[in-house]
Amino acid sequence: MKLVVIGTGYVGLVSGACFADMGHNVVCVDKVASKIKTLEDGGIPIYEPGLDEVVLRNRKAGRLLFTTSLKDALKDAQAVLLAVGTPTDELSGRADLKYVFAATKEVAENIEKPVVVITKSTVPVGTGAKVLEILHKTRPELLCEVASNPEFLREGSAVQDFMKPDRVIIGAQSEHTKNIMQMLYSKMIGEGTPVLFTNIATAELIKYASNAFLAMKIAYANEVADICEGVGADVDLVIKGMGMDGRIGNKYMQPGPGYGGSCFPKDTMALTHIATDAGHPTKIIEAVINANDLRKENMAKKVISACGGSVKGKEIAVLGLTFKANTDDMRYSPSLVIIPELIKAGAKIRAFDPVGMEEAKKELCNSERDDNLQFCSSTNEALKNSDAAVILTEWQEFKELDLMAAKKLLRELVLVDLRNLLDGNKAVSLGYKYVSIGR
């Protein structure tokens, strides 16, 4: 079938490329001409391992095209996938749906026959109904339909998550919509992938409820880590023991400096508004949001404490800037809180990230802190003559850090491991003051 994907960000580009890999003819549309030119020239505008291979393979096969012209793309399309941004509105804290509604209206204005419009973007409950209303109001003569098909992609493993998902959730308006969605996912259905069909509101809520639950597990693991530090327990073993219970599991139970990224922060915030609007405020998710915000601030205090209670005039090597490994995404990264707090306390930061340096510079550079923030080209450059090293992101490069070599570079042997990547006993045996999470 012919599918049009609107938006070439993480969700849109991964979805479009993977649907093409399943044999469909896909046209990806974006208003940003520079992104389309990059894609047409063989480049990838985002960092996502393995995505370049899928894009290249399907471009060569003629199943994947890119354009800025929605009108041209929509010719003979059977379905349109909305994968535009739904950022948090800074004033209200709600999901901003202006791009979703604008794209819907533009689709309605340019189609020649009915299509199924699929919301792939994460949208609040009720969005599907509003999308349908726009379609019918703009083109009442065309009986367009709507579906909800939330994504569950992890940055850094998005291609694998799309092609081998735990489940596919489809909110279908009618039997016709259901049939179109079954056609779209026919390859996966044939391979036995679990598919759950619901109404549209249920599918929309499944996405938010899932992300909020995962965020809650992370926040809980962080609080358990704090308790472990208070009572002398080992958080790694506590979580291992908990995870052996099939009802709990050990995924998303790794303590760290707080969650970030494009999903959990905005989705938890949006869910609190969905719940309040429904007349059932969610105290648990509100507590998770507050705990995560406080977590990032407390990690800066943890670094200061490890440095003897003051970082004034000290140089701190910060290893890792992105919110997680295997991505260049800086959105809501703990580094965006921890680094400014350390600078405010008088530290000079020497920062390095294997992939996210350019994005980090956009987010962290400003006139107030530029003199106290140096971006380094390697781990060794960041470590050289620093008074402490702080691991913020769980990149494999930092997990394999050569402690003997680092010892020769650092001015003071203070190592704050906020991801529990390293062998603490080995670090201590080499003379480091080693501080980790919950151990």
Topology:
Blueprint: E1 2-6, H1 10-21, E2 25-29, H2 33-40, H3 51-60, E3 64-67, H4 70-73, E4 79-82, H5 98-110, E5 116-119, H6 127-138, E6 145-148, H7 158-163, E7 168-172, H8 175-184, H9 186-190, E8 195-198, H10 200-231, H11 235-243, H12 264-277, H13 283-306, E9 315-319, H14 335-344, E10 348-352, H15 357-364, E11 373-375, H16 379-383, E12 388-391, H17 396-399, H18 403-409, E13 414-417, H19 424-429, E14 433-435
Parallel strand pairs: 1-2, 1-4, 2-3, 4-5, 5-6, 7-8, 9-10, 9-12, 10-11, 12-13, 13-14
Antiparallel strand pairs: 6-7
Helix pairs in contact: 1-3, 5-6, 10-12, 10-13, 12-13, 13-14
Description:
The protein is α/β, with parallel strands linked by helices and 439 residues long. The chain has 2 domains: 197 residues, Rossmann fold; 146 residues, Rossmann fold (3-Layer(aba) Sandwich), CATH 3.40.50.720. It has 19 helices and 14 strands. Strands 3-2-1-4-5-6-7-8 form an 8-stranded mixed beta sheet, sandwiched between helices. Strands 11-10-9-12-13-14 form a 6-stranded parallel beta sheet. Helix 10 runs parallel beside helix 13. The longest helix has 32 residues. The model has no long low-confidence stretch (mean pLDDT 96).
